[in-house]
Design goal:
Structural class: mainly alpha
Shape: elongated
Strand order of the largest sheet: 1-2-3
Order of helices and strands: HHHEEEHHH
């Protein structure tokens, strides 16, 4: 058993680091969600911001969009051209996906400066892709409501998780081993 542990030391280190970072960030995020209950941003600041930015994206594409707090659950109702098409919940704000992304990058860390920069750039890219994804999903639900299941549960999750996977592969294969100028 000891020989296996020694042989796969790097893999074990990666898994433990990934899980530890993921659990810590997830607990911190849960704490943030608990603290944000009752704030002026409903249901929480990030979800509220995603709802507003989605509305703005839809409006820039010539849709009449509005968001209103959902009366029965912690979410924002998204209305497109006077038709209720979706609710934006905490899971739509991309924070959990960003935590997953960051956990992997930290577990497979390269030089500190490059790692931090990649986490920041990757997180922003994931956030922007998520905003576009939610806006396109809303437009799709407006025009093709009978395609709700495939749009919401297959196509659009594949886009966001596919992007995360591509960012991970770029990190592992190209960026994590770059030398900084100070080396």
């Amino acid at each position: 058993m000891k020989a296996l542990f020694i042989k796969y030391k790097l893999v074990v280190k990666f898994i433990i680091t990934f899980l530890l970072v993921y659990v810590i960030f997830s607990l911190l995020y849960r704490g943030y969600l608990d603290i944000s209950k009752g704030s002026k941003y409903y249901p929480d600041y990030v979800t509220n911001l995603v709802a507003k930015q989605t509305r703005n994206l839809l409006e820039s594409a010539d849709y009449r969009a509005k968001i209103i707090p959902h009366p029965d659950e912690p979410s924002m109702k998204l209305i497109v051209n006077e038709k209720y098409v979706a609710r934006i919940v905490e899971g739509c704000n991309s924070v959990s996906v960003i935590i997953l992304f960051m956990s992997f990058i930290i577990a497979f860390a390269g030089k500190p400066k490059i790692t931090i920069l990649y986490i920041l750039v990757g997180s922003v890219l994931i956030y922007i892709a998520n905003l576009i994804r939610v806006a396109i999903l809303a437009a799709g639900l407006y025009h093709y409501p009978w395609r709700k299941d495939i749009l919401h549960t297959v196509i659009f999750p594949a886009i966001i998780y596919g992007m995360v996977f591509l960012l991970w592969m770029l990190w592992v294969n190209r960026i994590s081993n770059l030398k900084s100028k100070n080396d």
